[in-house]
């Protein structure tokens, strides 16, 4: 796997492995390995680490497979800690701390390590908000209504007028009763598509 996206023989690598981060500019964390680290693994120390986001390790495909085979999440945990981690809401039952240093009692703001997020819900929400705030590469403005209409049509932020028209035609054919034997079960979806298209075709980004 010497070249990004290809095997040593020049053939294209399989890109559908779960968790692969394509384009990662990181070396594999396995000592002596020169391949690209495209798969994230937990840090060596989960507890007692300095405050801040976890310092993930990154492995190539071969070494992440080896890591997964020997990984034990409950290693070094006591019986009580294992029981707590296995509860359905484990990690979400910690006492909430004040965010302000001037709050009653003079408590300090929470540290990163104070949060338990086993399902990565905080990170997922942050990524979603970043996607919401993203801008078009051509610099054309997008209002909240524009973004909502794009989601309705399943279009990317950088879609152009041609892509808009193509997607609109595709969805109308999919939802229109005439193409479904008279079935009106998709009438609401069709109305949403018509409204989204009517809005976007007049939006600054598509004029």
Mean pLDDT: 76
| Class based on secondary structure composition and strand pairing | mainly alpha
Compute the number of structural domains. 2
Cα end-to-end separation: 45 Å
Overview of the molecule:
Residues 1-51 are annotated as: Disordered. Residues 148-205 form the J domain. With 207 residues, the chain is mainly α. It has two domains: 1-93, no CATH class; 144-206, Helix Hairpins, CATH 1.10.287. It has helices at 61-70, 79-86, 121-133, 144-153, 161-175, 187-200; strands at residues 39-41, 57-59. The radius of gyration is 24 Å and the shape is elongated.
State the main characteristics.
207 residues, mainly alpha, Helix Hairpins, 2 domains, 6 helices, 2 strands, 34% helix, 3% strand, elongated
Question: Could you provide a short overview of the structure?
Answer:
Helices cover 34% and strands 3% of the residues. It is mainly alpha-helical and 207 residues long.
Write the layout of secondary structure elements.
Blueprint: E1 39-41, E2 57-59, H1 61-70, H2 79-86, H3 121-133, H4 144-153, H5 161-175, H6 187-200
Antiparallel strand pairs: 1-2
Helix pairs in contact: 4-6, 5-6
């Amino acid at each position: 796997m010497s070249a990004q996206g290809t095997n040593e023989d020049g053939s294209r690598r399989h890109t559908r492995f779960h968790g692969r981060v394509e384009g990662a500019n990181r070396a594999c964390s396995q000592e002596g390995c020169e391949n690209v680290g495209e798969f994230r693994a937990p840090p060596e120390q989960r507890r007692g680490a300095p405050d801040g986001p976890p310092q993930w390790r990154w492995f190539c495909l071969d070494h992440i497979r080896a890591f997964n085979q020997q990984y034990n999440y409950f290693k070094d945990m006591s019986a009580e800690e294992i029981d707590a981690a296995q509860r359905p809401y484990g990690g979400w039952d910690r006492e909430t701390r004040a965010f302000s240093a001037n709050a009653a009692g003079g408590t300090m703001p929470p540290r990163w390590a104070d949060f338990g997020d086993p399902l990565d819900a905080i990170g997922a929400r942050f990524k979603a908000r970043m996607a919401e705030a993203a801008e078009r590469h051509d610099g054309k403005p997008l209002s909240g209504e524009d973004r909502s209409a794009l989601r309705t049509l399943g279009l990317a932020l950088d879609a152009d007028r041609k892509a808009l028209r193509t997607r609109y035609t595709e969805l109308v054919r999919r939802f229109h009763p005439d193409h479904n034997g008279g079935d009106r079960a998709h009438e609401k979806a069709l109305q949403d598509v018509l409204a989204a298209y009517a809005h976007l075709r007049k939006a600054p980004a598509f004029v």
